[in-house]
Amino acid sequence: MIRLEALTKSYGRFTAVQPLDLEIGSGELFGFLGPNGAGKTTTIRMIVGVLRPTAGRVLVAGHDVFAEPREAKRRIGYIPDRPYLYEKLSGAEFLRFVGGLWGRDGREAERRADQLLDLFELARWKDTLIESYSQGMRQKILISSALVHSPEVIVVDEPMIGLDPKGARLIKDLLRTFVAHGGTVFLSTHTLAIAEALCDRIAILHEGRIRAIGTMDELRREAAAGTAGLEDVFLRLTHGENVAELVAALRQSQ
């Protein structure tokens, strides 16, 4: 469903993302992790067509994101880490606007918007301007806008920002249900417990390159980490054994 072919991004002499080859299938929840500055958000922005790569290409459902932007992008629901919302629109107006961008208007679009507003418990505020929404409500309306056109792929960067435990659980359940019905999720997060609990496979990016990729068991073997959790595996793969051992020692001393 998502295919990256030698995807590269450079800024002058600095290469933020080294040639990256990756394939993610339908029905897969894929985690994309890495330290700050590893190239995660740059990669995500290239996948969704916000940032043009220096080289290589991105295919979504067989469509090149830059050669066939409309065909590719209408299959993607994007949840960025720094959302922009039209604050002078109400929640319902915003969902209708986004649906209309992708040719979803009329009765079907209204039904879909109402379903999402009910799901995220925003129906009471559907006619309230977004400028008065709390941070959690803004995140929910953003996620709703990524789903309103019934995408085949969800690309999400830090999905739980501003959500209370109930909202966070709802998003987890929604993502798993989405992939259970054949959708594809590309998830980036610093909350390693979420990635470990949700993802079928995980790639760990370090200095613009994929350091390791696979299931949790495969990552543990790569890191020689025994039965360790994702946090220890991540530290071993990105910072070496010394950091992982230091963290373990600190835990034992508490």
- Supply the CATH architecture of the largest domain: 3-Layer(aba) Sandwich
Query: What is the C-alpha radius of gyration, as a whole number of Å?
Result: 19 Å
Segments where pLDDT lies below 50 for 5+ residues?
none
Number of strands: 10
- End-to-end distance: 45 Å
Describe what you observe in this structure.
The longest helix has 16 residues, at 165-180. A hairpin with a 2-residue loop joins strand 9 (201-206) and strand 10 (209-214). The protein starts with a strand and ends with a helix. The protein has 254 residues and is α/β, with parallel strands linked by helices. Strands 6-7-8-3-9-10 form a 6-stranded mixed sheet, with helices on both faces. The protein contains 10 helices and 10 strands. It folds into 3 domains: 1-75 and 151-214, 3-Layer(aba) Sandwich (Rossmann fold), CATH 3.40.50.300; 91-147; 218-254, no CATH class. Helix 8 (216-223) packs across helix 9 and helix 9 (230-239) crosses helix 10. It has helices spanning 40-47, 69-73, 91-101, 107-119, 135-147, 165-180, 192-198, 216-223, 230-239, 241-253, and strands at residues 2-11, 14-24, 29-33, 55-60, 63-64, 76-79, 153-157, 184-188, 201-206, 209-214.
Topology:
Layout (H helix, E strand, L loop, with lengths): L1 E10 L2 E11 L4 E5 L6 H8 L7 E6 L2 E2 L4 H5 L2 E4 L11 H11 L5 H13 L15 H13 L5 E5 L7 H16 L3 E5 L3 H7 L2 E6 L2 E6 L1 H8 L6 H10 L1 H13 L1
Parallel strand pairs: 3-8, 3-9, 6-7, 7-8
Antiparallel strand pairs: 1-2, 1-4, 4-5, 9-10
Helix pairs in contact: 3-4, 3-5, 8-9, 9-10
